[in-house]
Design the sequence.
């Protein structure tokens, strides 16, 4: 995704620029989304878990749209502190929206509640690290070509921290209260969800 942002910045054709921006947003958004749902599949909860199809797809769209919007702000010639902070907040908020919409998409015989302070901390963590990652994008775009790959790797590592730390802070904020018979709606079971995530990752 960070590699594609440089394509956005270098493209002078508005249509081509929009296409690269959409692809970069999808790459980042589905990367965020795949991390979340693989981590959810890794959680051992002693109740059956399924995933609401519509809400699961909506969560992915939140991440992709927020990523594309943030990239649109930073794929400019000059990135001021205010623009950078706004873009990081948008991207961090998109990560949070994806995570908590994904949690709402869970179908299980249990009710979910959240610690409000850890909830806020999780979004703040996402926004802070996302802002740092986008700042590295700005540095990448002004660096000489031989250092560009290094900046891309550093930016990807910081962005990975934004996603992972937000996710697990959000999971620390989460409480499950058993409620037998609560599972309703059309849902994918865990095996199908794993195949779905794997297929989406392969397509990227």
Sequence:
């Amino acid at each position: 995704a960070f590699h594609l942002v440089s394509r956005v910045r270098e493209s002078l054709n508005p249509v081509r620029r929009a296409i690269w921006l959409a692809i970069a947003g999808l790459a980042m958004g589905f990367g965020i989304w795949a991390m979340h749902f693989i981590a959810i599949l890794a959680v051992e909860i002693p109740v059956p878990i399924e995933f609401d199809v519509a809400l699961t797809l909506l969560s992915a769209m939140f991440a992709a749209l927020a990523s594309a919007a943030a990239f649109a702000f930073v794929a400019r010639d000059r990135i001021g502190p205010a623009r950078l902070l706004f873009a990081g907040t948008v991207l961090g908020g998109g990560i949070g929206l994806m995570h908590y919409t994904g949690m709402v998409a869970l179908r299980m015989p249990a009710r979910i509640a959240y610690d409000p302070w850890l909830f806020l901390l999780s979004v703040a963590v996402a926004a802070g690290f996302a802002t740092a990652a986008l700042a590295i994008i700005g540095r990448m775009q002004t660096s000489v070509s031989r250092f560009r790959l290094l900046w891309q790797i550093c930016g990807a590592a910081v962005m990975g921290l934004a996603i992972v730390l937000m996710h697990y802070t959000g999971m620390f904020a989460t409480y499950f209260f058993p409620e037998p018979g609560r599972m309703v709606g059309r849902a994918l079971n865990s095996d199908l969800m794993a195949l779905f995530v794997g297929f989406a990752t392969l397509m990227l």
In short: The chain has a mean pLDDT of 85.
